[in-house]
UniProtKB/TrEMBL annotation:
Pfam families: Amidohydro_1
MF annotations from Gene Ontology: deaminase activity; hydrolase activity, acting on carbon-nitrogen (but not peptide) bonds, in cyclic amidines; metal ion binding
Protein name: 8-oxoguanine deaminase
Family: Belongs to the metallo-dependent hydrolases superfamily. ATZ/TRZ family.
InterPro entries membership: Amidohydro-rel, Metal-dep_hydrolase_composite, Metal_Hydrolase, MTA/SAH_deaminase
Protein species of origin: Sphingomonas oleivorans
Record keywords, A-Z: Hydrolase, Metal-binding, Zinc
Key word Hydrolase present: yes
Highest taxon in the source lineage: Bacteria
Sequence ranges assigned to domain Amidohydrolase-related in this UniProt record: 51-403
Annotated coiled-coil segments of the chain: none
Amino acid sequence: MRLWLKNPLAILGPDCAGGLVVDGDVIAELVPAGATPAGPVDEVMDASAHVILPGLVNTHHHFYQNMTRAHPAAINKPLFGWLQALYPIWARITPEALELATEMAMIELMLSGVTTTSDHHYLFPAGMEEAIDIQVEVARRLGMRVTLTRGSMSLSVEDGGLPPRSVVQRDEAILADCERLIARFHERGPGAFVQIALAPCSPFSVTPQLMRESAALAARHGCRLHTHLAETEDENDFCLHSFGRRPLDHLEEVGWLGEQTWLAHGIHFDPSEIERLGRSKVAVCHCPTSNMLLASGQCHTLALEAAGSPVGLGVDGSASNDAGNGIEAVRHALLLNRLRYGADRMTHLDALRWATHGSARCLGRDDIGRLRAGAAADLALFRVDEDLAMSGAHDPLAALVLCGATRADRLMVGGRWLVRDRMPVGIDLASLRDRHHRLARRLYG
């Protein structure tokens, strides 16, 4: 079936003011202003009230954390104190809780225009050995694209790390499960819906040996690597004290400094380190909301891009962000980066680029994140005529970012509508919210 999304109010794509044609699960054609599709179409949708974006791509999250939003134990604390307060609480996670948290996180992302998301799950207490399997099942049921990163922690507080012993695993068990997940779930090539990446949590929660062996395993299987790095000055101090080197030097020492790697946060790099990252094509996921809430600092986004590093966006965990809204993160990225670079150097188009094409590059994909013929039919459609916040806006595309859009009107993944009229298709949202909230209070209250 060929669907023409005709004459959108605005569209983030090249020479396609006349809209685009979706054929099955891909974009078949971009239509210039005043033109009609070159081939026949089976259905026409009048998009004159919609702003069309490539589906947003979220490259860093922790789904399980939406069970502990605004938790009293962690409010008003910097990262290390925040983690130390929440690790013992998170240790009570159950398979039921992870399934509900994953479904809630994905739907929250979909409603905000996200069509592809990554998740960094690194909690594997007893009974949670198949955590990633649970997430795969939810993603397939909802129809969203995912890169699920098999996170890991092997250094407990007794070993000089931060997490309690109950949530860490032995290196051997971690690597064996990574092998299992890649063999069972990892899809390769354009159009993939489920991909697996390897993601030791951070330098202060895993052994150097696990970092090295994860890199070797990823290279053998053609998978990507992900970790938190240079998020806080405390992390820099930890690496200097524990390893005698800064986080980026540690990353290079364990074999991670290459284009297979994308990093979360990447705040505290000096100019020479930014140049090294760019030369190595290491990507960085900017997490503006989380960085502001935890007061971690500001990522050198434009400097990283200028050096050669792809830059993407992430909402980060719902406990450090207290939300999981993709289009909201775009606005926060614009505002935070204007403080560093100025209003003339940092535009709404830069922030939208990070959330689409830049994020796709973080995940090593060129089939998503842009509107072009042959790309996946992953689309986010917003309206600017139904929210008071955007009344009177003159540039519809800029209005999504400057005026603060929060919810997509429609969302398409692989040619299939997952959101219509600002609601997820086939989902009882009230029931989901009730079950999620009750379980969060019972487990973590």
